[in-house]
Amino acid sequence: MHMATLVLIILSAGLASQWVAWRMRLPGIVVLISMGLLLGPIFGVIDITMNQTEFTELIGLGVAIILFEGGMNLKFGEFRRVGRGVSRLTLLGPPLSWLIGALCAHYILDLGWPVSSVLGAILVVTGPTVITPLLRQARLNKESASLLKWEGIVNDPIGVLLAVLAFQYFTLEDSSWFGIFMGLGKALLSAGVIGGIGGWITGWLYRRGSVPEHLKAPMLMVLVLIAYWGSNLIQHEAGLLTVTVMGLVIGNMHLVEREPLRDFKENLTTVLLAVLFVIIPSQLKISQLELINNWQVFVFTIAVLFFIRPLSIWLATLGASIRTKDKILLSWVAPRGIVAAATASIFGPAMVRSGYGEAEILIPLCFLIILVTVVAHGLTLAPIAKKLELAAEEKNGLMIVGASSWTHALASALKKLEVDVLVVDGSYNRLKPIRMDGIETYYGEVLSEHAEHELEHEHLSYLLCATDNHYYSALVCKALGHEFGHHRTFQLAPHEQSNKEQKQLTLQQRGYFAFEPPTDFQTLHKHLDSGWEIQSTTLSDDFSMDELQKRLGEMGEDWILLGNLSPKGEFQLYSSEQPFTTDSGWSMLYFSRTSL
């Protein structure tokens, strides 16, 4: 098969698998690995003709970019809030998990200490590639999510480094404990110099404009790969720790280009995951899969889920200021991802070549544990988090940015209808009457770093920017659109926008206009001052939407439709740019002088 055809098959299969997983609400990794097994050992479609060393080196480049992107998503503000817990999870957790995992591998699987030690180190990692989608799906509160995210991203390179040191100790003739500590020191030194200082210099040059805008994202990708390669020359597999540190440094430098750079890396990571999780399992052989068909593997897998992880977490967090319910969640949630798969594909064959034939079990066993942990934790994280009261309820409600007399009236009406509402503003005086009415508020700038870490809005489904500054509202909508979904992000129309349409912001630069234009800030408050009220009525078979319009008059002039409430209590915000359909039993929320 031609290489171009093979690349196209891998890309198509990987992205199609992710789409199928999204449509069926399944963990993406499960579908990707299944596709890799079908195209590889089962049907033999994918056959990569390169030696194992070249293959693993290419895998390492992809994993380096994935870990760099994960490092960019770590914020020092999160660490300041959960720092002590993260320190325990990343400093004590990996060695404990490594030790307990190696003991279980030795006594349950009857593996020798060399292979058991490497396997225990590989299973230390959890990984951002699986944790991040699960957190998004479960919508954990920010403190619990921060603990899992920091642990998953930071422990990946630590687990790989532990595997490297164990591998070198048992395979190199001149290895000793002194050599092990020297290797660890060289890895930390390369991470600090190349990743830390190199990352800071890169950000400094970007900030000074030393690199043109169109080259910043691709050049950063190349610099990440160079940092990975250079660190590996100093200490084998230290590159993953280096790129994680580099991502952490650049991601916290508050660069103007941070969001475009992060978007570029996220898109690249999505493609890399699709490729790697199809390619790696496709190289398995049927004989390797047969190695995991026994009762010992079953018992070891159970131990991974119910013994190794819980014991290591509880020992690591003894005396730490972590809530008990967070410890329970951490004890259960530890899905393995691409780093575990890639590391097993590197060290499994290497140990076999070094004379440890039983290491052939590493790759199929790791894929089995990846599948089991992703399915088990992916299906149970959300219900367990809800049971522990660590997750938001189903998304249903409205976050309003901008406190005013009209948003006060809207929030009060929604509260009467038992719809969750949160009003955000940077003025204490504007928020005071709203808070006095028992409505939830947030005092502060919605785009601030504090709001990013502390403002809980995962339970709300819509965003309405109702300020008198059209351009500020547009800025907020674009900044928060990826969290709410751009189709659920709205702002008030600018004053007299219909007469100056060509001079206004395009839809790509703002949120959708709420309600029926020209409904702007001034119009709403003028109507409120003249006696208009926010009301609701329920449609029925005898009282349809058409009948409501006949009684109230022309929409936009005599009354303004604000939203509706389904019979199940689901709230929808109305916009002429995002219209919705209604039926009998739906409650309509509107702003009018006329009372029905």
Any overview of this molecule?
By secondary structure, the chain is an alpha/beta fold. The protein has two domains: 49-387, Na+/H+ antiporter like fold (Up-down Bundle); 397-592, NAD(P)-binding Rossmann-like Domain (Rossmann fold, 3-Layer(aba) Sandwich), CATH 3.40.50. Helix content is 62%, strand content 8%. The protein has helices at residues 3-24, 28-42, 52-72, 76-109, 113-122, 128-138, 142-171, 177-207, 213-234, 239-251, 258-282, 286-290, 295-316, 324-332, 338-353, 362-387, 405-416, 428-436, 449-454, 470-484, 521-529, 545-552, and strands at 397-401, 420-425, 440-443, 462-465, 489-491, 512-513, 533-538, 559-565, 571-573, 587-592. A hairpin with a 5-residue loop joins strand 8 (559-565) and strand 9.
- Give me the side-by-side strand order of the main sheet: 3-2-1-4-5-6
* SS strand fraction: 5-15%
Determine the mean pLDDT.
Answer: 85
Helix content: 55-70%
Instruction: Please provide the count of β strands.
Output: 10
CATH topology of the largest domain: Na+/H+ antiporter like fold
Which CATH class of the largest domain is shown?
Mainly Alpha
Main attributes of the structure:
Na+/H+ antiporter like fold; 596 residues; 2 domains; six-stranded parallel sheet; Rossmann fold; 22 helices; alpha/beta
Per-chain topology:
Elements: H1 3-24, H2 28-42, H3 52-72, H4 76-109, H5 113-122, H6 128-138, H7 142-171, H8 177-207, H9 213-234, H10 239-251, H11 258-282, H12 286-290, H13 295-316, H14 324-332, H15 338-353, H16 362-387, E1 397-401, H17 405-416, E2 420-425, H18 428-436, E3 440-443, H19 449-454, E4 462-465, H20 470-484, E5 489-491, E6 512-513, H21 521-529, E7 533-538, H22 545-552, E8 559-565, E9 571-573, E10 587-592
Parallel strand pairs: 1-2, 1-4, 2-3, 4-5, 5-6
Antiparallel strand pairs: 7-10, 8-9, 8-10
Helix pairs in contact: 1-2, 1-11, 2-11, 3-9, 3-10, 3-11, 3-15, 4-5, 4-7, 4-13, 5-7, 5-15, 6-7, 6-16, 7-8, 7-10, 7-15, 8-9, 8-10, 9-10, 9-11, 11-15, 13-14, 13-16, 15-16
